[in-house]
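Please predict the structure of the following assembly.
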Amino acid sequence: MAGMIEVRNLGKTFVTKDADVEALQDINLSIQAGDIYGIIGMSGAGKSTLVRCLNFLERPTGGTVEIEGRDLSMLSEKELRAQRAEIAMIFQHFNLLMQKNVIDNICFPLLYAGVGKKDGGRKGTMSRKDARKRAEELLQIVGLTEKAKAYPSQLSGGQKQRVAIARALAANPKILLCDEATSALDPQTTQSILQLLKQINKDYGITIVIITHEMSVVREICSHVAIIGGGRLVEQGRVSEIFSHPKTKEAKELIVKGKGEERRTLEGHQKDMMKGKCCIRIVFSVNSSFEPVIANMVLRFGQPINILRADTKNVEGIARGEMILSLPDDMQMQADMKEYLTQRGLAVEEVDGYVV
Amino acid sequence: MWFSEWTNEMTVMMMDGIKETLFMTLLSTLFGYLLGLPMGIALAVTDKNGVRPNAVIYKVLDVIANIVRSIPFLILLILVMPLTKALVGRSYGTAATVVPLTLAAAPFIGRMIESSINEVDRGVIEAAQSMGAGTMTIIMHVLLVEARTSILVGVTIALGTILGYSAMAGIVGGGGLGDIAMRYGYYRYEEEIMFVAVVLLVVLVQIFQTLGMKMSVKLDRRQR
């Protein structure tokens, strides 16, 4: 079945004076209606360019983008603008009109772009009164009714993003693109914005695409994820699957290093101590948490295990236990222990040079 | 003793001077914006980083702006006399100076508008584009709205500059305070009259500056 968003062999090359820069190469994505789809990568990986290709703010230099079966490259300038009204977007820096108050910002797409046109009329056919009424409803959805008359400079980051979300919803979009929407916010505000997005996805069935460099964001609300590295798609699938069994180097790196868990730099002798140690990361599924696996393994092999980190993470709304273990130096023992853990239904991953 | 021989006629002359200076300055600024505003918008929008890049239109406007701006005002005043005559009916007098003043001001104003618009945050423009807004909508409801404060500061600067240019209007019998200062101070060594005229010019510039800045701050919604 064709999805809401189908991306095929997408490529984007920027031509500069010095050299051609291949920002994206051979990207294939299929995003179904109602998904919350994460696109994650380190900065400079090309994810912002990718999301701009989804509404043709950047024209791809190769491949196609189809929204509900319509190839965007076949649309005229006018049709493309009408299509864009159905693909809302929010940004890292909110991008509100600084000289307009909250209500007028939300009214913008209602009065000047999008909505009027979609209803078959000329743009701006929605009366000022109707637009205001709709804007007030939207403000209620994002929980900012009392800030209607405030200017963006008087709002906090989280409040600004709420206004941006209300503005994005104004045109009744089918898709919401979020470009690093929570990257400028503190962890608590990030949580509340993510909850709001989740609610919008549930209540209105809007397909959401989230661009981020934070695995915690993807874990929190996404059902699917695509990992971008060096302009290429390196891995994609269900979040729970990739969280338990990351295959590529990029995926492992993003998963092990979570938000706000900056790795401490070790002193020289500490580094030497960790050198050559075999570290593994294990993820508990729901049923494996009934058995005291680690304790049993220690008893069985008669060797101590060093637990470097233990954590519980919320993945697709289910709590998942995660541990990083340092195994004994004996190679045979290491292999046996990994085998033991795998047999008990745990996802086992070797992590090279893990530093607490 | 200075001012001992100050007569009523001199007061009347100064009042007329103020009126003529204001007439020339305000009218030229108004016409200057009628030409310069669209020019500045076109420059900003067709720039290679603009909303709708167009190398040809940009280059043409760019060259026009540079040529007009590099002609000294005094020369321009004389060069455009035929045009002035065709538009106003005669090539001398206060009304006649409005034509060269406007022509000198327009490209300068255009450049200021261009730079004001270029200051508008790219992200806000991108947001409007993502909502399906067309070029005209973006100009009217994003660029001009967001650049408002900067444009008003520009108006203040333009008024001061045009007021300065208007002092040269004496060449074509345009009158005004600058003309008075030149005639009495430079040609007749009557320093007190020159002094009064210059003080009045300074006061006018101060008033424009203060009002302009007050208004731009009052209309700016960013800091409150």
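The first helix of chain A runs from residue 47 to 54. The CA atoms of residues 52 and 58 of chain A lie 5 Å apart.
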